[in-house]
Amino acid sequence: MSRTGHRLSWPAAIVRHALLLASGGLMLLPFVWMVSLSLKPPGEIFRTSFSLLPEHWYAIENFGKALTAASLPRYMANGVLVCVAILALQILVCAPCAYALAKLEFRGRDLLFGLVLVGLLIPHQVLAVPLFVLGYSLGLLNSYAALIFPFVVSPFGIFLFRQFFRSIPDDVVHAARLDGLSEFAIVWRIMLPMAMPAVMAFSIFSVVAHWNDLFWPLIAVKSPNLMPPALGVAIFHGGEASTEYGPLMAGAVLVILPLVLAFIVAQRWFIEGLTSASLK
Amino acid sequence: MISPGYDAPPGRANVDRSAWVLPTRRPGEVLAAVALAGPAIVLLLILFILPIAAIIAIALTDWQFGTKSLHFVGMANFRGILADNGFVASLRNTVVYVSIVMPGTVLGGLGIALLIESGNTLRDFYRAIHFLPFMATLAAMAIVWEALLHPTIGLVNSTFASVGLPTANWLRDEATVLPALAVIGIWQNLGFAMVLFLAGLKSIPQDLYDAADIDGADRWLDRLMTVTLPMLGPVAMFVVIVVALRAFEVFDTVQILTQGGPGHASDVLLHTLYRESFEFLRAGYGAAITVVFLLVAVTLTLIQARLIDKRVHYQ
Fold first, then answer.
1. What are the respective helix, strand and coil percentages of chain A, to the nearest 5?
2. CA-to-CA separations, B261 to B147, B171, B254, B292, in angstroms, rounded
3. How far apart are CA A204 and CA A106, in angstroms?
4. Does residue B14 surpass a pLDDT of 50?
5. Less Cβ crowding at N or C end of chain B, within 10 Å?
6. Does any CB of chain A come closer than 8 Å to the CB of residue B195?
7. Which of B6, B37, B223 has its CB closest to that of A112?
8. What is the mean pLDDT of residues A85-102?
9. Does residue A112 contact residue B39 with C-beta atoms inside 8 Å?
10. What is the pLDDT of residue B18?
11. B81 versus A241: which is more confidently predicted?
């Protein structure tokens, strides 16, 4: 029984499916086209007649070129390294702070929370010039550290964890203290395990954001060996392969594949994680 | 979570507990707070707060990356960008882009959400396929869109030609480049708006539909007009702002597909900011653009925050 209405009559149900399949088809069309071109030889790509599947399969050549000429495995390994490092540092930095803001009473707490809220207001691209200068003066530019350091603290992470920690009863904290746990032990052994939904949502938000990020990597690194996937595929496109759509599409498939597979497995978590940031 | 403290006689337990109950201040709590929150606060100051102060300060100077000299020039950079045809075009393009993407995304997302919610079957499936573009790496998908919009081998032109619609070199023509980029923006953000609307639809109380039934509003369209759309008002306002904010931050598609061209026809604020600061190395000038960008983004975010507060009050 749908909330917005009664059970649909069968003609109405057919119209609903027809409309949703049509719009869904349009949404998926770029993905289908990408896979289709990644399987075709250049001659068939540059033919104007329309076909979804190739006459001559060229997948091995296209994906082979994306994997060797564009060093895509390197970009993706960089992406994994950078995303994991950023997420681990964010949780390490944000969870204790969120606990202090949620469960401890101390002078200046409201002021500190105000600081977090100001951080939430700022679009990250605005920080690019000062962070570039900071990275330059610390000698960090063009290294993995350059890709990671601007993101080690996340105002959104602090905000989200604080909200979740507040919903955990104070009695849990008291009991843990009576058991002799230190404040740090309470954060890592009691609060964070109880806040797994928030941790999951934040992890997906963070990993998707940094796997897909083009703006900061474009500024922070010049060496192809350090490039994360979004920048790598952009450089591949801007370079000599700019009209070789077969290898380019193969590269695009490889770059989006990890997130798409994870999305198919954990759809609900992804939607929650990626929309929670705007409901803050 | 049973601990020895709770087994003590009632009287003593109460005394003990009151000592622990927050917000009573415990000795050492301040120290613990400093140790726990200190690293995050220091990093927030270094990575967020000081850079904001720095960007405003840099905007008042003539500094260029790589030079040692730096002079205070007051508002000269701001007068400079306002007199710069490139910046004015970039600002105008951004406004045009947002004013296409925002209504397209909001109306599309609302329509899809209403369609999904009107029946019981395949909801998760439809939600997933409409949401997919929102999380797929846009830098990679931009290249796919370039192939789709290609003037000779693109699917868009061959389809348009076969049904008698006009064709174009979409990304190289001043008249079509912004609308083409806007279509990609709508494609990417539609599923996001849809999910926000689906959450809004779920929060409409069933009582209202029952009441509408009794009052004779029992057809789908009647219920839509008398209950669903009026109740979605606050959510819709919120989605409008969130989507406007996302559209305002457009960068990846412009950087990969057009670099702001042809001419300045698709230059947008974030791309101008990037080019002036990091390609032309005009730090002071780039910082002035950054300040303008910051002002608009903060205004939109504050409206968004107010709308969230409002929605809480309604419930």
1. 75, 0, 25
2. 18, 8, 9, 22
3. 32
4. no
5. C
6. yes
7. B37
8. 95
9. no
10. 41
11. B81
Q: What is the pLDDT of residues B141-191, one digit of tens each?
A: 999 999 999 988 888 998 898 898 988 899 999 999 999 999 999 999 999
What is the spatial distance between Cα B266 and Cα B173, in angstroms, rounded to a whole number? 10
Q: Taking chain B, what is the end-to-end CA distance rounded to the nearest angstrom? A: 34
Considering only residues B66 and B61, tell me which one the structure prediction assigns the higher pLDDT: B61
Q: Mean pLDDT for chain A?
A: 89
ipTM of the complex in this document: 0.90
Rounded to whole angstroms, how far apart are CA atoms A131 and A138? 10
Q: Decide if A265 touches B, using CB distance below 8 A.
A: no
Of B2, B51, B195, Cβ closest to residue A127: B51
B212 to chain A, any CB pair closer than 8 A? The answer is no
Q: Which among A97, A175, A260 has CB closest to B136?
A: A260
Which region among A26-35, A94-103, A250-259, B214-223 has the lowest average model confidence (pLDDT)? B214-223
Say yes or no to pLDDT of B6 above 70. no
The whole-number pLDDT of residue A20 equals 96
Q: Does A209 touch chain B (CB under 8 A)?
A: no
Mean pLDDT is highest, among A91-95, A112-116, B163-167, B261-265, for A91-95
Q: Which of B30, B130, B249 sits opposite A27 (nearest CB)?
A: B130
pLDDT at B17: 42
Cis peptide before B262 (omega within 30 of 0): yes
pLDDT tens digit sequence for A12-39: 889 999 999 999 999 999 999 999 999 9
Show residues of chain A in contact with B77, CB under 8 Å.
Answer: none
B87/B89 Cα distance (integer angstroms):
5
Q: Does B21 touch chain A (CB under 8 A)?
A: yes
- Decide if B223 contacts B285 (C-beta within 8 A): no
Closest chain A residue by Cα to residue B251 = A215
Q: Which residues contact B98 (CB under 8 A, 6 or more apart)?
A: B244, B247, B248
Question: In this structure, how many other beta carbons lie within 10 angstroms of the beta carbon of residue B264?
Answer: 17
Distance CA A170, CA A105 (A): 12
B136 to chain A: closest CA residue: A256
Residue owning tokens 């192939």: B147
Q: In the CATH scheme, what is the homologous superfamily, with its name and number, of domain B76-314? A: MetI-like (1.10.3720.10)
Domains of chain A: 10-60 (no CATH), 68-279 (1.10.3720.10)
CB B139 within 8 A of CB A212: yes
Task: State whether A175 and B144 contact (CB < 8 Å).
Answer: no
Q: Return residues 215-234 of B near A (CB < 8 Å).
A: 218, 220, 223-224, 228
